[in-house]
Design goal:
Elements lengths: L7 H10 L9 H4 L9 H14 L1 H18 L1 H15 L3 H18 L1 H6 L18 E2 L2 E2 H19 L1 H22 L4 H21 L1
Antiparallel strand pairs: 1-2
InterPro entries: Prenylated_rab_accept_PRA1
Protein name: PRA1 family protein
Main location: membrane
Length: 208
């Protein structure tokens, strides 16, 4: 298979359809041999072949870099979690469910406080008012999301979470890029590419 003739769109489509549950390639093979490509076409074919063949290794490498970044800066992970929570609270079903779970948890510790966290009497059932306003812990969702948004913005600023994530992504993308560019495709990679090409052709005949 001539990987230099494969377009980026075709490579992306192949990575979407391919099986990602396969185990990563051994480290001895992953770091076996590196050479500088002799031409642009050689680099193009090598890069696409390695991206396809070592996809699991690259995914693990990116994940490992992000984990290390969050271990070194735990507040960055807190910032990401608060952002996800803030966005999720914009969904009515999630907001109502969150309010119920928080109220139930507080009730086990302090029933009087849980009573104060209930939605106003003028609302309908399950914390949803008759006019459509959603309450979280007895407060208008807009107020809850606004306060949570301010806290989230402060955590992002205080922890330099954006810088942490950007640097981690830069490293996590650069390392696979360099490996795919300089790792010489071995016989297994070439045989694997021919096998995948045969499977694609066979699927084409089966669908016809």
């Amino acid at each position: 298979m001539d990987w230099s003739n494969v377009t980026i769109d075709e490579l992306v489509d192949a990575l979407k359809e391919v099986e990602w549950s396969q185990p990563p390639r051994p480290l001895a093979e992953f770091f076996a041999k590196f050479t500088v490509p002799k031409s642009q076409s050689k680099w193009d074919g090598r890069f696409k072949c390695n991206m396809y063949f070592y996809r699991t290794n690259y995914f693990i490498l990116l994940t490992l870099v992000l984990v290390i970044a969050f271990v070194r800066n735990p507040l960055a992970l807190v910032a990401v979690f608060l952002t996800a929570l803030n966005l999720a609270c914009l969904n009515d079903s999630f907001a109502v469910t969150l309010s119920e779970k928080l109220t139930r948890a507080v009730r086990r510790i302090s029933p009087p406080l849980a009573h104060k966290l209930r939605a106003p009497v003028s609302t309908g059932t399950r914390g949803r008012p008759l006019k459509g306003t959603v309450y979280i812990c007895g407060r208008d969702r807009r107020l809850f999301v606004g306060v949570l948004g301010l806290v989230t913005a402060f955590v992002w600023w205080y922890s330099s979470a954006l810088l942490t994530i950007l640097v981690a992504l830069l490293i996590g993308i650069t390392l696979p890029f360099l490996h795919a560019s300089f790792r010489t495709p071995n016989l297994k990679a070439r045989l694997n590419s021919f096998r995948e090409e045969f499977r694609a052709v066979w699927r084409g005949y089966s669908d016809a």
